[in-house]
Amino acid sequence: MKRKRSSSTKSSQQAVSSDLPNECWELIFRFILKDENNLDYYSLYILNSLSLVSKQFLSITNTLRLSLSVPFSRGMIPIFKRFTDITSLKFDPFLYPDLDKILCKVSRFPLKKLTSLDISYQCTIPANGLRVFSQNIRTLTSLTCSDIDDFNTTDLFLIAECFPLLEELNLIFPSDWKSIYKNYNNYCDGIEALSLALVKLRKVKLCRFPMSDKSLFYLFNSCKLLEDVTLFECDQITIAGIASAIRERPTLKSLSFCNRTYSENSISNDDISHFKVTSDFIDSLVYL
Question: Read out DSSP for 73-138?
């Protein structure tokens, strides 16, 4: 009797799942998950449970996972064999002592739809891994490097070399960046290389980045498709520099900037004059 019941249950599950086409089940699963791009642990539990029902459900759930945040585990690499349709990949911070090797391994999988990569909170930029990664996965259009302990101007050349199709770039420096990055001139050549290489760049976010007015001019002048720019705490950039750059980029749709974060009683007259809105800046807005 037990065998008959088990067999009957299995056949009924197959009958139910085969009654509807994959497209219908996909809509149902998306409704259950609500947001497959940002799955919480409960949603992942549901996704895993659904994948165990049948081979049909397994195949459907494989295509639903578009974003992957990878915790540190040697056994996690094979997961890329299953989720080949992911478009976004983020490595959990502080957990990858050798991201170079991980990126090399990940690049062997056919991730043909991957467009976004986040390698934040690393000690250094994984140069070797990114080179191998870029040779095998050439669909990347978005790169985020946040709070890299040691980010050098050579890393800008590396990004320009590896990812010429980038449309979005986020470079966010650590909060103690001033004690590390003292020479702004060292980064001018790197910014110029980026500006010339990333011809498709549309959106850029720079926070605490060692950037001068000259570098900003390079960026706005060379990136003809630039539409969205965010500049936070880039305190060598002046209002005059921004005004000059705006005139070079009439395609700009959004510009957000904040000179620096002030602590109580720390604002000086020099600070105010450094970032005071001028008539020249207001005139430059006409070019937008």
Answer: -GGGTTHHHH-TT--EEEEPTT--TTHHHHHHHHTTS--TT--EEE--S-SB--HHHHHHHHHH--
Q: Residue 152: which domain range?
A: 66-287
Average pLDDT over residues 93-99: 65
**Confidence class for position 273, pLDDT limits 50, 70, 90:** very low
d(CA 197, CA 176): 29
- The conformation of residue 150, written as its DSSP 8-state character, comes to B
Task: Specify whether 212 is located in the same domain as 81.
Answer: yes
Residue 1, domain member (yes or no): no
Instruction: Check whether 249 has a pLDDT greater than 70.
Output: yes
Residue 184 confidence (pLDDT): 63
* pTM, full prediction: 0.74
- What is the number of structural domains in the chain? 2
The arithmetic mean of pLDDT across residues 80-102, rounded, is 77
List, in order, residues 6 or more apart from 193 with CB less than 8 Å away.
Answer: 156, 157, 160
Task: Tell me the pLDDT tens digit for each residue of 21-37.
Answer: 766 766 766 666 665 44
Distances (CA, A) of 48 to 54, 235, 255: 11, 48, 42
Indicate whether 2 belongs to any domain: no
**Do 26 and 169 lie in a common domain?**
no
Domain annotation covers residue 7: no
CATH value at residue 237: 3.80.10.10
In a domain, 212, yes or no: yes
Q: Cα separation of 256 and 227, whole Å?
A: 11
